[in-house]
């Protein structure tokens, strides 16, 4: 008796720690429910309750499953006994493994699909980017920076090229003008060095002492300031400056041609519209207060367009329906800037429209009579322009047109650039302005009096055509060497003064002219930029002309008046004087 | 199995009524076996001196195999305590209400645990992600998967 240990069956009262049911030893349920004491402390439970608890917990989280397998009081591990043959273990493991494999396969399949699709898109975009760059900076420069073989490309190209189409489209959607679209190209590519293959060729040629000496000699007389300016300078300063100037001028031109404000012609006018809707609502009814409001708005340089009535506003919203999303964020900064630009345009239309809205009121002290000569009634003119815009704009709202236009920008630039090149055959001034240096004919070695002679390397090296021997044409397709230390073998041969001059010249050149690779190649990008600018101007003028013609068509519309030929005279109620006359 | 839950709840309720709750805990209402309300106060020296909070228990038919849904009541002028594990919508991030629940625990045991959780609080502040959680929180705190990372408070 001494070593006998009691079991759960020997308890007088059994209390299930799970369901809290009690059972007295002499009051067993019928049929008897099995009890269990699974741990080292005093807790006991119905076996069914405990199994249910364990089973439920195993279905939730891993941690809950672990917790459920030990006693909540003493922490002893429960031991489960079951029919758990090797086969079951094997099947369970196999099932788990298959499940994992399935999951992996799903993941892999999705990843493959996404990968294939996105790499397809990537390849197309990269291809487009390469094409666009080649169009824009010209084949020579392209061959120098990238070459047609992607194996030579620097790593950055694999990011920059595909992003080009995106940046083109985005900047197109943000701005009605296409000029800013090329800024990314100008800023992105100049710093990139020539690809290695080219670099090597150049190096081999220019490390030859005799060639190097020629370089140092010919480099000396070059002017300190290069033309054209570096792509950096153009992209950062010239284009934004030119764009803003152009906008102001164009707005003035449009005002003069059309005789009143044409809402859609001013960039980012839609934005101002939106901002001013609130003002219009507040000013809903005419009156003195409203005029005051407008005068305030004049000072702010805005609020002149919203007075043209609901119709215009709707038109403009429609016009900008696609860029809307992009614009909302992108244009906030620009609007503020634009407000200043349009300040000088504001007073005319504004004051007059105020008058119009207020009905026949005494002359507004702000009314300003500096309108165009044909502007008899500005409000009528504005209404006609509005109608004309409505008529034209029907075709211009498609997203396809915007994106297609954006993607064609490089081709247009290149096309315009080649037109400029062709024109420059006839004008030395244009040739100088475009800094045309290299021609396809130069490789023919033509040393006659043709214009292309001026454009050979000699002019790149500082404009003294005579100073460069014909040997320079040995590598007609190579631009001059980047000035590394290896090309200065004749540096010691120079006088100290010349050394200082050369150093100064190089410093200035790199600041103004950018890297030598760009500064000394045929600046295709430069004439393409100019060409694109001209294209935009031409396009805008065409649009203005279209608008003006439409407006005139609307204004001159008359319904043709006919007599009553063919109508029985007796059916007409005619004035007495008519019968008198006959 | 539904009978297990109701039998056990009935039994717990009888015990509470018979023996009373521990100090600071009062049964407010237990009209049915689905929703019970208690008030708890932290006894002794604590940051919550003089404050009383209302605690709501909701039981489903799988109690006590699964934990009750416990939260502080934040309606009718009642407030949840400001505590790093208590969200302003009354939800409580406590492991014993989640994956450390055990059927050996009872309603009173949960009340006592939460009382001591408040009592040991050293700084009155909301959980760091309170606003984000409250915005997206499900109605039932049991549907939230809390991460019980801090066992010290």
Automatic annotation (TrEMBL), chain A:
State the residue spans of region: Disordered: 281-309
Q: Which domain of life is it from?
A: Eukaryota
From start to end residue, where is composition biased (Low complexity)? 294-309
Its subcellular locations are: Membrane
Q: Give the record's membrane topology.
A: Multi-pass membrane protein
UniProt xrefs under Pfam families:
RINGv
Cellular component, GO annotation = membrane
Instruction: Give the transmembrane region(s).
Output: 104-133
Keyword entries, A-Z: Membrane, Metal-binding, Transmembrane, Transmembrane helix, Zinc, Zinc-finger
Molecular-function annotations in GO: zinc ion binding
Q: Specify the RING-CH-type domain's residue ranges.
A: 8-81
Can you say what this protein is called?
RING-CH-type domain-containing protein
The lineage, from the top, is:
Eukaryota, Fungi, Dikarya, Basidiomycota, Agaricomycotina
UniProtKB/TrEMBL annotation, chain B:
Tell me which InterPro entries the record gives. Answer: Ub_conjugating_enzyme (IPR050113), UBC (IPR000608), UBQ-conjugating_enzyme/RWD (IPR016135)
Q: Does the keyword Cell inner membrane apply?
A: no
Show the SUPFAM superfamilies listed in the entry: UBC-like
Q: Residues annotated as region Disordered?
A: 134-153
Task: Please tell me whether the keyword Ligase is annotated for this protein.
Answer: no
Checking Gene3D superfamilies in the record gives: Ubiquitin Conjugating Enzyme
UBC core domain boundaries: 4-153
* Keywords of the record: Ubl conjugation pathway
Tell me which PANTHER family the record gives.
UBIQUITIN-CONJUGATING ENZYME E2 (PTHR24067)
Protein name according to UniProt = UBC core domain-containing protein
